[in-house]
């Protein structure tokens, strides 16, 4: 291999590595946003709420940076096969990560509302759901960074548990509202917070599906294991 | 131009046209899903609910078909400049359209719930919001099909009105719940239905932003006009 083509190959590899490192950074940021958002709500931590909301513009900027890098690689390197699949998947994965950031920022903003801060509603269900979603997200991002199809498949399978916790929480919150109209204000916000946590779980599953596809070239079944028509989904 | 290269150019153009026609078809489907979902809820039309839910697999399949076509074009044609931007944007736009389909299917599924079917809550606010969101979505899809930057900019500016209607609806529904605990069941579902309509409006705005970028190469301001921190957003 001549010196020039070695140079080209190496800088192509460097660009792919740079793309991967941007993705890992974005993954780390949305994990941090999510854990701060969960702390904001479960521990009534105002400081954490501020951090989760403040990280959002950084996440949005990274999504745009990844896209610019993808366009650069596509224009200059014309990747094929596995590399092309990886580069295209990067665009889809950053879309999911950006939405995770939005959900976390939304949870954080709601956590500051007076109705919630002063309410005495038990937050133990939300805490458990927050832990599970954080764990799934962390493993989805790990699977992405390690390009680990087995781990991706595992994450994809754990989404059902999040859906079950969400459905239980939905019923619990409606019961609180029925018991005492003063609970209606805080509980409507908690309903949306639980929904946003469930959506973070969904996006983590989407990322896992993508990682699996990028690593193997195969698509996981269209219908993944999840709560049925009768749930509180959507 | 030799016969062979004329052939290559023409089939590249054909592939781009095929991509555009798949996008237009997907856009038409999610418009239809949204109008059926609004009819399902506003006119208590069970048949419309079924149609909105049944269209979802077709929308999902089109998203995968568009991606396969994009990968084909990238691998075989190495598009540059405006064409590359269009092809990459197709992936992002189908992501938004797929989520619009999800929101519409979710509205349709909720509309069938007993609590809602038997309730006497006024649906006039929801009807107005549904009309506005359908209108924005239709114009966003038109802007996409016509690659019309001016129309895209207009759609992008109309999202504020949707947010305002959503915030008004949120307050109205909470009031109904406070008035009579029997309203709590149906109103929680209506809250999520209103939220899903608002999200369809957001995705229509995202599509408009993309169309504007693809047509002009310029990005609309990061912060678009919308309800502030004090709203019921997220």
From TrEMBL, chains A, B:
Compartments in which it is found: Cytoplasm
Pfam families on file: PhoU (PF01895)
Protein's UniProt keywords contain Cytoplasm: yes
UniProt feature coiled coil, ranges: none
Cellular-component GO terms for this entry: cytoplasm
Every PhoU domain range: 24-110, 127-211
Alphabetized InterPro entries for the sequence: PhoU, PhoU-like_sf, PhoU_dom
GO biological process: intracellular phosphate ion homeostasis; negative regulation of phosphate metabolic process; phosphate ion transport
UniProt keyword terms in alphabetical order: Cytoplasm, Phosphate transport, Transport
Entry keyword Transport: yes
Tree of life domain: Bacteria
Function: Plays a role in the regulation of phosphate uptake.
Subunit structure: Homodimer.
Family note: Belongs to the PhoU family.
Protein's UniProt name: Phosphate-specific transport system accessory protein PhoU
Taxonomic lineage: Bacteria, Pseudomonadati, Pseudomonadota, Alphaproteobacteria, Acetobacterales
Gene: phoU
């Amino acid at each position: 291999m001549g010196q020039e083509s070695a140079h080209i190959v190496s800088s192509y590899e460097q660009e792919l590595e740079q793309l991967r490192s941007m993705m890992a950074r974005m993954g780390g940021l949305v994990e941090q946003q999510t854990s701060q958002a969960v702390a904001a709500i479960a521990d009534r931590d105002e400081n954490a709420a501020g951090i989760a909301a403040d990280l959002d513009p950084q996440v949005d900027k990274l999504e745009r940076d990844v896209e610019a890098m993808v366009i650069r690689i596509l224009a200059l390197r014309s990747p094929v096969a596995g590399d092309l699949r990886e580069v295209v998947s990067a665009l889809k994965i950053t879309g999911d990560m950006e939405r995770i950031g939005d959900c976390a920022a939304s949870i954080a903003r709601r956590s500051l509302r007076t109705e919630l801060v002063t309410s005495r509603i038990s937050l133990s269900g939300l805490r458990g759901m927050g832990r599970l979603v954080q764990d799934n997200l962390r493993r989805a991002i790990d699977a992405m960074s390690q390009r680990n199809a087995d781990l991706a498949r595992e994450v994809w399978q754990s989404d059902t548990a999040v859906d079950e916790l969400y459905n239980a929480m939905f019923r619990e919150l409606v019961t609180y509202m029925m018991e005492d109209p003063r609970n209606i204000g805080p509980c409507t916000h908690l309903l949306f917070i639980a929904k946003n946590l469930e959506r973070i779980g969904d996006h983590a599953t989407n990322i896992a599906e993508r990682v699996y596809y990028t690593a193997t070239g195969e698509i996981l079944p269209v219908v993944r294991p999840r709560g049925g028509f009768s749930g509180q989904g959507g």
